[in-house]
Every structure is written in structure tokens, then in C-alpha cells.
Design goal:
heterodimer; A: alpha+beta; Alpha-Beta Plaits; four-stranded mixed beta sheet; two-stranded antiparallel sheet; elongated; B: about 240 residues; mainly alpha; Fumarate Reductase Cytochrome B subunit; 10 helices; about 5% strand
Chain lengths: ~270, ~240
């Protein structure tokens, strides 16, 4: 069994060079996307079916001080993936290493994973009509390599290793980062509403600053839908058809008996009180 | 005045069109979504392509949403009657609901109180269909357009809600079709020609016939005559 792995992005070390974005596109053979210039360094507004990994470069002024909040966003590879729970075709699965992967052959592009993901990660490709997202370079990590983004990071901001190694590194780095950023905190390392994630962060500030939900959650709605409503719905549909067929048969039998009754001269009507 | 001295006018043409558009769009919506709901029907995706069915689902959704909205303009009388009848659910309707079940297997209960334009069961079905329509439309539109506009948690709950409404709607539709086609085949004419046999109307909607006579739209004599004609040639149906 493969070891449980994790990625750790230390935002305090990120220089926003975007080499990880390029490395991702290269390994995944994804085309470049033309993005408009909006007066800031931000390139793509959000993840897309052609961009699985994005460095956000949000400009913020607080108390007259300029902040540049940089963060690498991608699939969080949740312990309890809401996308997997929401997929009606069982096209999404989690590997032993913790990577959440989409089987393109099974995917029908319904978009339920996109609806359910608390991080708004999966994107349906307009041409292939399939759901797309980062798969933690599952092909690389299961052959002893590190994901292409982690491989290329020049500032050692992206780390990759076993879950235990990354947790230990996160705790160690947090102490150091707190000296410069008192609000610094870990994200996804410990259990949370999605059971913890395999993409983890050392954030220099509150999650909301980076556009991350404070309490991401795998909705109970999907458990209810998949485990109760779908099976019950099938039973109800079949029961309605069988019930009507049964009632129809019974009505014919009663009609036949009634006819025999009449022919025997006993008369009467098929009325009940 | 009876049509052909035998049939009581019941539904206007535009209302009939709305009924069948609603029925057809619901059926198509159900079929185009079925592979998402049950793996048994995955072959539909394989044959037609998932994307085609997903687009068709949205096309029929527009028909399903628009039908009653346009219907309220072009079939005012029919929809007015629907609303009036549902809001006047009374004691006789309750008695109908209690005595009705044997009818499902072709046994006609005695002592059934006279019913109005719609009987107690039909009133229940109309209310149920209206609630299901609203649930399907609201949850469906939220799933279609809501991503990014409303909270993820609310969005996620729309999927089970949409499925429950579709499931109940389907079961109710099967019951409705069975009752119309097998138990009361005479009622089918109402949604085809727009009129029903006077004999059937008197037996199943006595209070409505009384109303029509009171209003002077038909006369007691012509109804009696119509029923008399029918009695000379007995209906093969029991009861």
C-alpha cells in the first residue's frame, strides 16, 4: 500500500514566480490561456479546465500598509472529498496516497462535483465535456517522484512528502513564520469539515485573506442523496409500476368473477359498502 | 348543450395542449436525467451522448417551466377552475378519499358523495403536482444557474431535493396514468376531445353536472336522455 502523502505550501516563502504553473502545464500538456491585463500581476482569475494550478497574487492595503497575498491554489485532495461523494457515476476516487482522481472514461460532465466542491476546484471542459482538476501528479508520485509543481519550486515554498513528514515540517515552519506574521496558521493539516486535506498550507494570515473557506465542509446532502434517496427512489419507481400492474391484474380477476357470478344468475354488482 | 346529445364539454383546447405539454416535458425530463439517477440506464448516455441528454434536459426544462405560466394566460378558464377546486377541498372530498381505494382494483364503492369538477383524489393530485412543479423548478434553476451565486451548502441540498421531487412526481404520474387509462377510461376523452360522456360525468362528477344545469349550460332533460340512450346499449364496463 502506498504511503499517505501530502503537499505543503508555505506562502511566506512564495515569491510568486509562477514556475509551478508552468511546470504543471508542461507535465499535464495543457495549453496556455490568453488572460487580459487588469492592472495587476494576477494572471488567470481562477482555475480552469486548462489551468489546474494557479498562483493568486492578491493586492491588499490594510492600515495603510500594502500586502501582497500570494498563494498556490489547486485541488485540495480532501480526506472526505465532496466531489467524490457528489459524483453520480462513481468516476471520482481517492488513491492510497491521498490523491483524488477523476476517471475520464466514466465522467459524464454533469458538474455535480463542481457544485459540491467547497473549494470550487473542478471545472468542466467546454470541449471534452469532462470534469478536470489537479490529480496531485498521481502518475509521478506513485513512481517515487514528486509532483511537477513541487519539483520546480525555486523558493522551497512547495514541499512534498509523507503526511507525517509534512505535518512535522508545518509545525516547525509555523513557529518560524509566526515571528514575522503573528496571525500565521496551518490550513488542512489537522482534521476539518472535509476530514483534513492532502494539500496543506502555512498561511501568513486568516484563511479568508487567501479566499479559503474558514470551515470547508462535505455536505450531508450528498450522503443523503447517494445512500438513501437514490436507492429509495428506485424502489418507489418500481413499486409504483408493480403496484399498478398488480391492481390492474386484480381488477381483471374481480371483473371475471363478477361476470361468472352474473352468468350463474345470482346478479349483484361489484359495489362495496 | 351537450355535444352530439351525449358529451358534456369539459376542457378547453388550450388547457388540453398545456396538459400534454406538461406530461411530455416531464417524461422527457425524467428520461434525460435517468442515467444520472440509476446506473441501469447508463446505456442512454452511451447511445445519445451525455452532453446531448444534458442539453435536452435544459430544453425540456424551459418547456416544463413555461407551460403553466403561459397556460395561465391562454387557458385562464381551466387554470381558474384548477385553483378554485383545489381551494374548495371539503368534507365530501374527505369521504371520497376514504371510500376511493377499492376503485383501484375496479370495485366501485357505494355511497360515494357527489363530486364537483374535480373529485377529492384529483384535487389532491393537482396540489401535489403544483408543489412538485415548484420544487423541481426552484431546485433545478438553482442547480443550473446558482453556482457562485448562492452558498455551496444550499446548492448541495438542491440535488437531493430535485431527486425527491422527481421520484414522487414519477410515482404520482404512474398512478395518474393507471387511473385514467385503466380504471376510468371514459375520462380519457376529456383530455383528448375536451368533453366526456354524460353518463360518466353524472356518475363521477354529479355536483358539477348539477352546477351546469343550474347555470343553464345544459338541461336535466338532455342529460337524462343521454344517460337513457346509453342504458339501452349497456356499457361493458362493470358498475
Amino acid at each position: 500500500m502506498a504511503k499517505e502523502m501530502a503537499m505543503l505550501h508555505d506562502v511566506s516563502r512564495c515569491t510568486g514566480c509562477r514556475a509551478c504553473m508552468v511546470a504543471c502545464k508542461q507535465w499535464k500538456n495543457l495549453p496556455a490561456e490568453n488572460t487580459p491585463f487588469d492592472g495587476e500581476y494576477q494572471s488567470h482569475k481562477s482555475l480552469s479546465s486548462k489551468t489546474y494550478n494557479l498562483v493568486k497574487m492578491n493586492e491588499r492595503v490594510e492600515d495603510g500598509k500594502f500586502h501582497w497575498d500570494m498563494i498556490k491554489v489547486q485541488c485540495m485532495h480532501c480526506e472526505n472529498p465532496a466531489c467524490m461523494k457528489g459524483c453520480p457515476e462513481d468516476a471520482i476516487s481517492k488513491t492510497d496516497s491521498g490523491a483524488v482522481v477523476i476517471n475520464q472514461d466514466k465522467c459524464v460532465g454533469c458538474g455535480y462535483c463542481a457544485i459540491n466542491c467547497p473549494f470550487d476546484v473542478p471545472k468542466i471542459d467546454a470541449e471534452t465535456r469532462k470534469s478536470t482538476k489537479c490529480n496531485l501528479c498521481v502518475d509521478r508520485i506513485e513512481n517515487g517522484m514528486v509532483p511537477s509543481c513541487a519539483q520546480t519550486c525555486t523558493a522551497s515554498a512547495i514541499n512534498f512528502g509523507t503526511k507525517e513528514e509534512m505535518s512535522a515540517l508545518a509545525q516547525e515552519r509555523l513557529t518560524a513564520v509566526k515571528a514575522s506574521f503573528p496571525n500565521a496558521q496551518l490550513y488542512g493539516v489537522d482534521k476539518n469539515g472535509v476530514g483534513g486535506t492532502h494539500m496543506t498550507y502555512i498561511l501568513a494570515d486568516k484563511p479568508a485573506v487567501y479566499g479559503l473557506p474558514d470551515d470547508p465542509k462535505t455536505s450531508d446532502a450528498m450522503n443523503l442523496w447517494k445512500d438513501i434517496i437514490r436507492p429509495l427512489g428506485k424502489v418507489a419507481g418500481v413499486a409504483a409500476i408493480v403496484g399498478c400492474a398488480g391492481a390492474y391484474t386484480l381488477s381483471k380477476v374481480i371483473a371475471k368473477k363478477h361476470k361468472e357470478h352474473k352468468e350463474n344468475g345470482k346478479g349483484g354488482d361489484s359495489h362495496v359498502d | 348543450m351537450l355535444i352530439d346529445k351525449k358529451y358534456v364539454p369539459r376542457h378547453e383546447k388550450s388547457f388540453i395542449v398545456c396538459h400534454w405539454l406538461n406530461a411530455f416535458s416531464f417524461l422527457m425530463l425524467f428520461l434525460t436525467a435517468l442515467p444520472l439517477y440509476a446506473d441501469t440506464f447508463r446505456f442512454l448516455y452511451d447511445i445519445f451522448g451525455a452532453h446531448t441528454l444534458q442539453i435536452l434536459h435544459r430544453v425540456f426544462a424551459v418547456v416544463f417551466i413555461a407551460t403553466p405560466l403561459i397556460g395561465m394566460l391562454i387557458a385562464r378558464k381551466g387554470f381558474g377552475t384548477l385553483a378554485k377546486e383545489v381551494l374548495s377541498f371539503d368534507k365530501d372530498d374527505m369521504v371520497f378519499m376514504q371510500k376511493f381505494p377499492p376503485e383501484l382494483i375496479g370495485v366501485h364503492p357505494s355511497g360515494m358523495p357527489k363530486q364537483t369538477f374535480y373529485n377529492g383524489g384529483e384535487k389532491m393530485n393537482i396540489s401535489l403536482q403544483a408543489i412538485i412543479w415548484l420544487l423541481l423548478v426552484v431546485s433545478g434553476l438553482v442547480i443550473w444557474f446558482g453556482n457562485g451565486l448562492i452558498s455551496k451548502e444550499t446548492l448541495a441540498w438542491m440535488i437531493p431535493l430535485h431527486s425527491i421531487a422527481a421520484g414522487i412526481g414519477f410515482a404520482a404520474a404512474i398512478g395518474h396514468i393507471y387511473l385514467a387509462a385503466s380504471v376510468n377510461p371514459d375520462s380519457m376523452r376529456g383530455m383528448q376531445e375536451g368533453n366526456i360522456d354524460a353518463r360518466y360525468a353524472s356518475a363521477h362528477h354529479g355536483k358539477w353536472i348539477d352546477e351546469l344545469i343550474a347555470k343553464g349550460e345544459i338541461t336535466r332533460e338532455e342529460v337524462d336522455k343521454a344517460i337513457g340512450i346509453n342504458q339501452e346499449k349497456p356499457n361493458k364496463k362493470i358498475g
